[in-house]
Amino acid sequence: MKKIIFTILITSIIFCKINVVASTTDLADIAKTIGDNRIKVISIASGKQDHHHVEVLPSYMLKVKKADIYLKVGLELDLWANQIIDGSRNRKLTIVNCSENIKPLEVPTTKIDASMGDIHRMGNPHYWLDPENGKIIAENITKAFISVDPAGREFYENNFNEFIININDSLTEWLQDFNHLHGEKLIYYHNSWPYFNERFGLEAVQFIEPKPGIMPSPIHLDRLIRTIESDDIKLIGMETYFSDKAPKFLAVKTDIQIVHLAQSVGALPNTETYLKMIRYNLQTISNFFKEYND
Ligand SMILES: [Zn+2]
Asked: What b-and-e string marks burial along 58-74, b requiring 16 or more CB atoms within 10 Å of the CB?
């Protein structure tokens, strides 16, 4: 009898877990930190993928069909999520736009046209790369967990408070340890880094892509060579999902160096949590400049 009760109890605990689907590994990791064993979370995109372009598969809709909460990045980054959500026909789904209360950077002030690229139309959507925005994401997720599972309020709030302390402690440490990055200039492949740059004092002088989502043309590569030479740029930071053909071409022409950066949790080894991912990027850029300047 005891065994039966135990089994029922275990089953009901497992059964009661909130089922969460996130668009990205960054949101999934923050959700795991807040929800811990009261939730089950999966990410649609992997950390290695280009989040602007995710192929919608029927299996994703089946996953969302069984979910209680869907976590969207918003700012039009994961427009594909709408297709998954609609296709799931899950009327009970709570949809959380994690960009709520984020102050977007690079919001276009002129009329949008196709020549500007078509993927950063609402402002730059890569906001999770500033840990201060990680706190806002966590707050949005915590509110959603409490609304779906009010009995877990204290649990979620405690985990949220602990996460905030962790971010604050990490930020204090990083702003001190990586202070030497202030004013360092680099070229990025895609314009994923304005929030990261603003927090840590780095400066993007150019991008391999002439506009977000547009492949570099020979004219643009020539322009980059001139910028590298005139501004004495030493480093290209590139997301993991691009071909390194254009960066390598520039490296041959100018001696510029290339590092891979983690655009998301799990993009590279040692980036398996949100805080580790931020730290990895700082450490990678810092190692380069320290070695170079020595
Ligand atoms: Zn982008």
From this structure: eebbebbeebbbbbbbb
